[in-house]
Amino acid sequence: MKIAVVCAAGREGSLLVKEALQRGHEVTAIVRDGSRIPKATHALVKDLFDLTYDDLKGNDVVIDAFGAWTEDVLPQHSTSLKHLCDILSGTDIRLLVVGGAGSLYVNPQHTASVADGPEFPDIFKPLAAAMAKALGELRAREDVRWTYLSPAADFQADGPRTGRYILGSEELTVNSRGENSISYADYAVAMIDEAENGQYIGKRFSVVGE
């Protein structure tokens, strides 16, 4: 497959590039900073907001690994995703989005989310709200072949790659030990599996480590 990873210089983005390369895919790493290009088949140095359809055409899948953490740029979760959706609107190119866990539901009625819980840190609530807003806007797009993958609540940057994980849907899922965690590396495994299999087009799903 031909896979483009947007924001490929980040910790998750670089692991997505690595995982796809290891499986023999043709990978284009798209980065804003030319000094931080991960090993890939091709590289494109360009800001996400400057990307055009011509930059992405020919790919089977585009993976959006964008992240914004400070309050002044949190709205870019929505604006960056809208930009990518607008570029890919009406095409067969699939858009896979590295999502957040705060919007996962904690009840069958889907009226309460992880971020609503009393134990959810206040410092992360603005980020969770921004990402939930972007997900809601993505759900309204019927012109894009999108997929949104939420990680476990405990998303471990330096955890090992085991190659094993448990799939969940819209609700917070725990493993046999009652844990809800996954490494960045195993999340990358799940994302590239979805890129290959296309089981969740037009849906959000989640993943947790075994």
Automatic annotation (TrEMBL):
Database matches in Pfam families: NAD_binding_10
Coiled-coil regions listed in the entry: none
GO molecular function, one term: oxidoreductase activity, acting on the CH-NH group of donors, NAD or NADP as acceptor
InterPro entries: NAD(P)-bd_dom, NAD(P)-bd_dom_sf, Polyketide_Oxido-like
Highest taxon listed in the record's lineage: Bacteria
Domain NAD(P)-binding: 8-193
Protein name: NAD(P)-dependent oxidoreductase
Biological source species: Gehongia tenuis
